[in-house]
Amino acid sequence: MLMLVLPLIISFLHICNDMFSSFLAPLLPSLQGRFGVSYAAVSLVVAIYSFSSSLLQPVAGLIADRYDRRLLAAIGPLLVVLGFGFLGFYPNLIVMAISLSVAGLGSALFHSSGAALAGQYAPAGKKGFWLSFFASSGMFGIAMAPMVAVGMENGVGLKGLALLTPLGAVAAFLLMRQAPPINIDAKPSSFRDLARVFRGEVAKLWAISTLRNVTFMSFSTTIPFWFAQRGISDAQMAITLSIYSFAAVAGTFIGGTLSDRVGRKRVLVMTMVGSLPIYAALMLFRPESWLYIPLLALAGALMNAGIPVAVAMAQEYEPKQIATVSGLLMGFTWGFAGLLYGIIGPLVERFGVVPTLTVLGLLLIPALVITLSLSNPALQTAASDFKTTAEPS
Q: pTM to 2 decimals?
């Protein structure tokens, strides 16, 4: 029973972590007005948080492979819910930036250690299911964030966000209470280990994930800009983005679950092959077409279906460094893709939305080629680099 409860607690912590950390984007206009600063200034806070939460995930993974990752998985979301829950109390932008950079480190610690724990606690043959459940729970939190943040702001004001912080605090307490301490029973991880695992099959997975994320992040980020250019209403844009987000949640859950049945590599290849025609169709059809929303939903599902599959494969390639490779395959790929978007944004302005995104779609071809070159990982029935002080029952 305990082995079922623990993944559920970790997944609920993922909802809290990603929901709170996604409060920032919809509240930027309010924070800009509250502090009386430029939009560029508040956007810098987003960049600071993104750096500490995404690009530091491999380092956080090294830490989680050295120490009790149960403790890190509890502390990480607690830093996030406190950092974002008190957005209405910060006296100035500098204090907020410092606080959110610490929250970002907490998010990095959680994603690497949480994904490792989800893989460790998964019953034999169910790793894909529980990693997909873990990943989709975070995406569900992201999808809920705008509604929760704006609803709370309109209802009780920014300070009212603090009323939600017990959600993460109670879940963190339950994890510490229910999960047995984990002692790493292997040589402590180092930067040499990071350099070692970032080769071979794990490096291929990282390249696949980064190419895919650059393509679809550019597309999803550009949708609001494209819709505004075409005079599409804010209401239609909000509905379209919500459909896209929830389709991404469904795709994430289905992808990992299916990989337990038909194999990791096969699912990864299927999602990459399916992405090519769907992406091409999105470039050919216009948002006004009735076919556009179903195509967008399919794109969101296929884009994210491979996320838990890639993490599961990486953990099976490197069973002694599962937190490190989880950090590489989760936030680090998105953070790296976000850095590349800094180049793509000006290209969109210079050449237009459709021409730029069409060329970016060509990145899916090398991603598919690399996917086909992957070897099938040996399935691990249990992680071999840890032991608990009390056996779960």
A: 0.75
